[in-house]
Specification:
With 300 residues, the protein is an alpha/beta fold. The chain has helices at residues 11-19, 27-34, 38-49, 63-66, 75-93, 117-131, 146-156, 183-192, 205-215, 254-266, 280-292, and strands at residues 3-6, 53-56, 97-102, 137-143, 163-167, 197-201, 222-226, 269-274, 296-297. The relative contact order is 0.16.
Length: 300
């Protein structure tokens, strides 16, 4: 029996799906801005499914995402809305934690575009300063390279809030980051860094196990939350990508996803949840499977 923190699923993807914004570059940011209360409704449904953490819709709320769209002046406003709606859902549920997600700089799955260390540190430190007062934990998500990891770790030292770092790995080789660098090197950096937990996210479920086996050597709590889409397409890697460039996998049913999560727990994970294209049904099935296996769901 283990004590498991159950994260929510793909909050941004779920917001986009419900709003019908799959063909818009601003993704969940635009949907949240256009439909007040939508993010809160998504968070409420994940809590009802069994999640103990609400991950605020802040992944893309970074200057480099909004300024090219001429919307840099809305950054503070939309950050406040995202965190407020997550907190409102948590308060209505009566328990749980609010996490602020911090996504990659310059684009997801594009480690070659990640800026130099000084630039990345400045931008990430600014995001932490903005998010920390209204969140319980900060999560650097979809960390695709060692350079990205180093910047996230140094920025994490600027806050007293717990910081989790989630790396993303090759869908066909879970022993390597998206950059091609070995996960074992990431584990060594994490072992010496300030992160309170080390996770794998935004990767195919089948790739997570090998990555967790390597992260287990970092001496921190480990965890995972996987994607349920088919592949990262060439269209998605172009400038201003949209969600409809990521076709969903029909084989990742809630029950099958829960089976993957049980395997991750068997490998030592104590934090599990879902990433893109995993909805409340996936989290509900995972919660049920974990309880049936004798595990206890806890609030971090």
């Amino acid at each position: 029996m283990a004590r498991i923190t159950l994260l929510d699923g793909g909050v941004g993807h779920e917001i986009v799906t419900r709003a019908g914004h799959a063909d818009r570059p601003l993704w969940a940011t635009g949907a949240m801005a256009d439909t007040p209360g939508l993010a809160e409704a998504v968070h409420r449904d994940y809590f009802a499914a069994g999640a103990t953490v609400a991950t605020a819709n802040t992944y893309a709320l970074l200057p480099d995402r909004l300024m090219p769209e001429g919307l840099g002046n809305r950054l503070a406003e939309w950050r406040a809305i995202a965190l407020e709606e997550a907190r409102a859902a948590r308060d209505a549920h009566g328990a749980g934690r609010v996490a602020a997600a911090i996504g990659p700089l310059r684009g997801s799955y594009r480690p070659e575009l990640f800026p130099d260390h000084a630039t990345a540190l400045a931008e990430y430190s600014e995001a932490i300063a903005a998010f920390a007062p209204d969140s319980d934990v900060l999560i650097f998500e979809t960390v695709a390279s060692l350079a990205h990891l180093r910047a996230a770790q140094e920025a994490a030292r600027t806050t007293a809030r717990p910081v989790w770092i989630a790396v993303t790995v090759s869908d066909t080789d879970g022993t390597r980051l998206r950059s091609g660098e070995p996960v074992v090197e990431a584990a060594r950096l994490l072992a010496d860094g300030p992160a309170a937990a080390a996770l794998v996210n935004c990767s195919a479920p089948e790739a997570i196990g090998p990555a967790l086996d390597l992260l287990g050597d970092c001496g921190k709590p480990i965890g995972a939350y996987a994607n349920a889409f088919a592949e990262i397409t060439e269209a998605f890697l172009q400038p201003r990508p949209t969600v409809d460039a990521l076709p969903e996998r029909r084989d990742i049913t809630p029950a099958r996803y829960a089976a993957h999560a049980l395997d991750w727990v068997d490998r030592g994970a104590t934090l599990v949840g879902g990433c893109c294209a995993t909805g409340p049904a996936h989290i509900a099935a995972t919660a049920e499977a974990l309880r049936d296996a004798g595990h206890v769901l806890v609030t971090p």
